[in-house]
Amino acid sequence: MAKGQSKPDGEIVRYRIKIKGVVQGVGFRPFVYQLALTRQLKGSVLNSSQGVIIEAEGEKEKVLSFIENIRTSPPSLSRITAFEWEELPPLGANSFVILKSEGLAVSAGRQAEREALIPPDVAICPDCAREINDPFDRHYNYPFTNCTNCGPRFTITLEVPYDRINTSMAGFVMCPACTTEYHNPNDRRFHAQPVACPVCGPQVELVTNQGEVVATKDWLKGCWDILQNGNILALKSLGGFHLACLAQDRLAVQVLRRRKGRQAKPFAVMCRDLKAVRKYCTVSEDEAALLQAKEAPIVILNKKPDGSLPAEIAPGLKTLGVMLPYTPLHLLLFAGPFDILIMTSGNYRELPLVKDNGQALEILGRLADYILWHNREIINRCDDSLVAVAVPAGRQAEKETMFLRRSRGYVPQSIFVPRPKNAPVILGIGGEMKNCFCFLKGEQAFLSQHIGELDWLEGEENLSLSQKHWQRLLGVTPEIVAFDLHPDYKSAALARQIPAQKHFGVQHHHAHLAACLADNKVKDDEEVMGVILDGTGYGTDGCLWGFEFLTGNYHSFKRRYHLAYVPLPGGEKAIRQPWRTAVAYLITFMGEEGAELAQSFFSGKEVFLVARILESKLNLPLACGCGRLFDAVAALLGVCLENTYEGQAATELGELVLPIDEGVRLKPYPYKIKGEIISPTRLIREILNDRKKGVAATVIATKFHQTLSYLICDIISKLACETGLKKVALSGGSWQNRYLFQATRRQLTSQGYQVLYHKQLPANDGGIALGQAMVADRRWQKECVLGFRE
Ligand SMILES: [Zn+2]
Ligand SMILES: [Zn+2]
C-alpha cells in the first residue's frame, strides 16, 4: 500500500481501495455509496471476485476520512480480512456510481484468485418481520421476504462473486417494485441479491406426501390444520428440509420417531418467540442472546421440570435443543395456534439432510404426511448449528459459548490461524462421524458445513460433492491433503484419491490437539500438554485411543499417559451396546469375581457369550476411550444399556450429575497410576460398592465425574513436573460434557495452568479437520526447510 505524499489542503486526490473478506451481500456497496455522497466524493464502487473495489475522488481530507470510516466502522454483517489503498491520478469524475460486478477474470486458462467471500445465512431481521405481518405492505404474508440485513446467502450461492446471477434467485426476474428498491441506494433492499416479493419471487406449495397439490394460496391455514390434526409436515427451510409436528402431541412425536428410525436421539424444537421458550425452559441472558443472534442456532437449554412437554422429545435428558424462527416462512407458520413445534432435520436416520423437492418426495414422503415446499433451490445443504452456554448457574464469569455443531449461520465464515499468507492450500478431510472438512488458504481456515456421518454411501457422496463445490467457491485446488490414520475411514480413502503434492496421515488425537491450538491461536511450535478425551480414535499402535495425555505442538506429539486398555467384545457392536463394554471392564479388571458380577447385573443378556469372546482373545480391538469408560459406568448403573445414538450413555450419565454446589463435598473415587497407564480397577470396584449400598445413581454419577476431573488434574501436575509445561489443551468430544469441562477447567486454572479449550469450533470430531490441516502444514514446512521428502 502506498500512502499519498502530503499535499496542500483542498487538493483533489483519487484513491483506489481494495477490501477483501465478507464484503458482498452485507450492504457494503450502499454503505460506501452513502458515505461517498455525504462527503461529495466522486468515483465508483464495485464487487469483484477479489472483493470490493472502490475508487474515490475528492478533497484529500474528505477522501481520507472516508477511508477511515470504512475501515473502522463497516456494515455490521461484514468482515474485513484485508484493506489496501493506493493513490491514482484524479480523473475529474463528476458522480459516484455503483458499477456492475466484475465476473471472474480468467486469463490464459489460469483462474484468477478468488478473494471474495460469501456471507453466512442471516436470520430474518425485525424490519422484514414487521413487513410480513403488515396487511398494507406488499410483503404481507410473503415467506421469502428479505433485505440487505437478512436472508439466505451461503445456502443459495453457486459461484462468487455473490450476485443474484450466481444464486438460485437467478431465474426470478424482479418486478418493477422490487427493481426500484433494488436500485435505490436509500432503500433497505438496495442490491439485496435474494430480494423478492409475491409478484416476482419464489412461491410455496403445500402438497400431500404423494406430491398432489393441497393448497397454494391458502397454504398457511392448510399447514395449521395439518399440524393441529397430529400430522407430520416436511417443510423446506434455509439449508434443507425440516420435519415438524406439534411438540405437545405425544402420539405425533412417537410416530415421527418410528418413521425417522430415531429411537432416542433428542429432537430439536422451535418456539414462536423468547416468551414461549421461557414457558418450557429456563433461559439465562446469554442463552437468550444466542437464541436471538443473527446466526439463530439451536441452543441447548435446561427444561423446566413441570413435564409440560412429552418426555419422548428428548428421552432421558433434562435438556432441550431450542431455536427461534429464522426465516419468514417459520415466522408465518408460528402465527398458527401453537407456540412450540418439533423441528428436526429432514432426513432418514443419519443420511444427509434432504434439500431438493424430488428427494423430499422420495425420502420424506415416507416420513411425513404433507410437504410444504417451494421453487427456490437450496444450493448448499446446511444443517442447523448447535450450541450451548457452558456455565453452571450463577457463575456468570465463566460463561462460554460451546459449539456442538458449527454449520448454518456460521459457515462459510473463516477462522484466522497462525500461518503465512503465501503458504500452500491445504485440505483436511476430517473424520468419519460429524464430518466437516477444512481448507487452509493463507492465514484463513475455512471449515465446511456439517457433512455428518460417512457410514452410508450418501454420506460419502455428500462429502465428495461438497468438497468439490467448496474448491470452486474458494477458487482453490488443494496442494496438500491430510486425513485420519484409521485404515477403514472412508474419508481417508477419499482424501488419498484427491490429487495433491503430498498426502499426510494425521493421528486422530494429535489432530484434536492441533485443532485446539489453532482455535486458541497458539503460535509456531510452542509445546503444550493436551488432555484429549473422546470415544475412539485410531492410535499409532493400532489400538483405539481416547483417554490421552499428550505433549506436543502442531508438528508432532508424544503420548504420555493413557487409560488402561480393555478389549471391546464385538468391536463396533460394543460401542452400540454399553453393557458389553461393562462386562469387558468387569472381567478385565476384576477377573473371576467380575465375571460373576456381570452375570448378576446383566442377566438375560448374552453375558456368557461375551465372556467367551473375551477368553478367545480373537477379534478383540483394544480400546481406552473416555466414551467407553462412560459407557461402562452408565451400564453398571443401569442408566443406559444400549446406545441408540452416538454418545447416548455418556450424555445420559452426564445428565445425572448434581448441581455443582450440592456435589462439591463428595469424596472422589480412588484410582491408580502405574507407569504411563491409569488403572480404573479401584474406581470400578468402589462404584459397585456404592451401588450395592444403595447410593443414588445421581450421587455415583457426580462422584464419577469429580473423580475424572481430579485424576486429570493429578496427571497434569505430574506431567508439568516432568516437562515444565504450563499450558493445557482440552479437546475431544467428551469435553462437551459441561460438568466435566467446567470442573476440570476451574481446578486447572486455580492450580496456575493456562487452559486452552475450543471457542470457535466444536471439541468433537467436527473440529479435527482443522487440526489435520495444521499438522500437515507444519510437517510440510519442515520437509521443505530440511529439503527432503519422506
Ligand atoms: Zn430484512
Ligand atoms: Zn417483486
Please provide a written account of the structure.
This protein has 790 residues and is an alpha+beta fold. A hairpin with a 2-residue loop joins strand 6 and strand 7 (110-111). Helix 13 (508-519) packs across helix 23 and helix 15 runs parallel beside helix 17 (626-636). The longest helix has 27 residues, at 697-723. One zinc ion (ZN) binds at residues 174-175, 177-178, 197, 199-200.
Shape verdict? globular
Q: What's the multimeric state? A: single chain
Strand content: 15-25%
Mean pLDDT: 92
State the distance separating the first and last CA atoms. Answer: 40 Å
CATH C-level label of the largest domain: Alpha Beta
Q: Write out the CATH superfamily name of the largest domain.
A: ATPase, nucleotide binding domain
Looking at the structure, the CATH topology of the largest domain is: Nucleotidyltransferase, domain 5
Summarize the structure.
It is built from 23 helices and 34 strands. It has 790 residues and is of the alpha+beta class.
What features would you highlight for this structure?
790 residues; alpha+beta; DHBP synthase; 12-stranded mixed beta sheet; 34 strands; globular; binds zinc ion
SSE diagram, text form:
Blueprint (H helix, E strand, L loop, with lengths): L11 E11 L5 H11 L3 E7 L2 E9 H13 L6 E10 L7 E3 L7 E2 L2 E2 L14 H7 L43 H8 L20 E5 L4 E3 L3 H10 L4 E4 L4 E6 L3 H11 L7 E4 L2 H7 E2 L2 H7 L6 E6 L15 E5 L4 H6 L6 E6 L11 H7 L6 E5 L11 E4 L11 E5 L9 E2 L9 E3 L9 E4 L2 E4 L9 H18 L5 E5 L5 H8 L4 E5 L1 H12 L8 E11 L5 E9 L4 E7 L2 E2 L4 H5 L1 H24 L5 H10 L5 E2 L2 H11 L11 H8 L4 H4 L8 E3 L2 E3 L1 H12 L4 H27 L3 E5 L6 H13 L3 E3 L11 H19 L4
Parallel strand pairs: 2-5, 10-17, 12-15, 14-18, 21-24, 24-25, 26-33, 28-32, 33-34
Antiparallel strand pairs: 1-3, 1-4, 2-3, 6-7, 8-9, 8-17, 10-11, 11-16, 12-16, 13-14, 14-15, 18-19, 20-23, 21-22, 22-23, 26-27, 27-28, 29-30, 31-32
Helix pairs in contact: 13-23, 15-16, 15-17, 17-18, 21-22
The structure holds zinc ion (2 copies).
